[in-house]
Design goal:
The protein is of the alpha/beta class and 475 residues long. It folds into 3 domains: 2-135, no CATH class; 141-248, 3-Layer(aba) Sandwich (Rossmann fold); 273-470, no CATH class. 49% of the residues lie in helices and 13% in strands. It has 15 helices and 12 strands. The chain has a 6-stranded mixed beta sheet. Strand 3 and strand 4 (187-192) form a beta hairpin. Helix 1 (2-35) crosses helix 2 (48-61). The longest helix has 36 residues, at 273-308. The termini are far apart.
Length: 475
């Protein structure tokens, strides 16, 4: 019954959210209309057939239709803001692809603002109301803890700190008869783990939490306990910190499936698959548009390179990409044709610490052509990498790809930079490029990987523009 009520409440959430989204659009229209007359509202209502299903999908994939019991309000608000920001990006792409230019942009921005505020207000009112009821002993979920070790103690202590979540511990079970009647962290030990079935028949329990110590018999015990829960229709949950993973692993831990096999997964990135799809979509749209717009510039650069030095126009080099995948990076050639073969003789002039070779803007470097110096200073040599973005080997934003022979010398934590697709620009690019040392460069890359978001990509792209214009840190 409780599960059915939860599902009903979440369905009502969906309906209420979509009503709020619809009302926000209409409200935005009338507010915008107060300042200057728009076309009749009927001219805009067709957009609701795009907005309503789109917001339904985005709110769902941002995990807003799972039980938020035990979640901090801030985490819920962040999910709403992210969903609305993604909606704005998708609408912008939709208008661009279908060449819809007659819609008032202020109306759309006002709609995003209003729907964000109203959805946050809705969640605030509902969650605060539920927290009040739970503190009064209503809308509670009864937990039975199997185990009394350190794992169980940490869990119970956390539950005791957050009475607003509505979790109430019925008691604990142990394997030692001498402990029955005692307590841990204020929770009574009411029986033995072998008595699980009869205790579930006599007590009101919504969830059984398994906090048993790891042992060779652990899986056999869990299978037996889960089978009992399944027979009685009670949720069985396993505390999965067998090795104190949070103490040794700073990434994300989540449950997923591979060919119907449940897996506990560890990831150094955000695991936000939908956001990564948006990142790829933005890469495709922007790189294609940039190639079309900048094609005259690229043609002029190509002609100048051909006329001023012998050799190919495009420089191709093997680089290490996502998780070490090798790909050909494209740049306009800025050096003489046999430049790579001369690198060994110039090793002592290397300006960069670590395994990376850099001597940009060094007058002693005989390899760079006079045209190449200008292309590097203005970053025009990077323009062919738009084709790398288009074919998917690179992204607009990401850690800069290193040559394969240099990437092979990067070890340990620094290898985590390969867990994101390499980019044309990155934190290193906007923080001085060749003016910072190798260790700081690696720290910036790991900072990007560990804190990646679409918002961060957008900020980096915006900051790249003035960096390119003034040539900061460029060779």
């Amino acid at each position: 019954m409780i599960k059915e009520r939860t599902l009903l409440a979440l369905r009502l959430y969906r309906i209420l959210d979509l009503l709020i989204v619809t009302a926000s659009f209409i409200l935005a229209y009338y507010i915008r209309n107060l300042f200057s007359s728009l076309h009749p509202i009927n001219n805009y209502l067709w957009l609701l057939f795009v907005i309503i299903p789109l917001w339904g999908i985005l709110l769902h994939y941002n995990n807003l239709y799972y039980s938020q019991r035990g979640k901090a309000l801030r985490s819920v608000w962040v999910k709403i803001i992210k969903a609305d920001a993604e909606g704005l990006l998708v609408l912008g792409a939709f208008f661009f692809v279908f060449k819809i230019h007659n819609l008032n942009r202020t109306l759309i921005l006002l709609f995003i603002l209003i729907t964000t505020l109203l959805l946050i207000l809705e969640r605030f009112i509902v969650l605060k109301s539920l927290q009040y009821l739970r503190k009064k002993g209503k809308n509670v979920r009864n937990l039975l803890i199997v185990g009394t070790g350190e794992r169980a103690k940490r869990f119970i202590k956390n539950i005791n700190k957050h009475s607003e979540t509505g979790f109430r511990i019925v008691g604990c079970l142990d394997i030692d008869p001498n402990k029955v009647g005692g307590s841990i962290e204020g929770a009574k030990i009411i029986g033995l783990s072998d008595q699980l079935s009869e205790i579930l028949h006599s007590e009101v329990v919504d969830d059984v939490i398994y906090a048993l110590p790891w042992s060779k018999d652990y899986l056999r015990q869990i299978k037996s306990y889960l089978s009992i829960c399944q027979q009685l229709g009670i949720n069985g949950r396993i505390i999965a910190d067998f090795y104190n993973w949070h103490d040794i692993f700073s990434g994300k831990i989540f449950i997923d499936e591979l060919l119907d096999v449940p897996l506990i997964s560890f990831s150094t990135n955000t695991g936000q698959l939908l956001h990564l799809y948006f990142k790829r979509f933005i890469d495709l749209v922007v790189s294609l548009a940039a190639i079309i717009i900048l094609s005259p510039v690229m043609l002029i650069v190509a002609v100048i390179i051909k006329l001023t030095s012998s050799g190919s126009i495009i420089f191709r080099q093997n680089r290490s990409g996502l998780n070490g995948r090798k790909f050909h990076l494209y740049k306009f050639r800025t050096m003489v044709e046999n430049a790579e073969s001369q690198q060994g003789a110039l090793r002592e002039l290397n300006k960069m610490s670590g395994p990376v070779f850099k001597m940009d803007d060094d007058p002693r470097d005989p390899r760079v052509t006079w045209v190449g110096k200008f292309l590097r200073k203005t970053s025009l040599d990077e323009l062919p990498q738009l084709f790398n973005v288009l074919d998917g080997s690179m992204s607009l934003v990401g850690p800069r790809p290193l040559p394969v022979y240099e990437a092979a010398h990067i070890k340990h934590d620094d290898r985590r930079r390969l867990s994101m697709k390499p980019g044309i620009t990155c934190l290193w690019q906007i923080n001085g490029r060749n003016d910072i040392d190798f260790d700081q460069w690696m720290k910036l890359d790991l900072q990007y990987v560990d804190n990646w978001s679409l918002r961060l990509d957008f900020k980096i792209l915006l900051k790249t523009i003035p960096v390119v214009l003034i040539g900061k840190g460029a060779g």
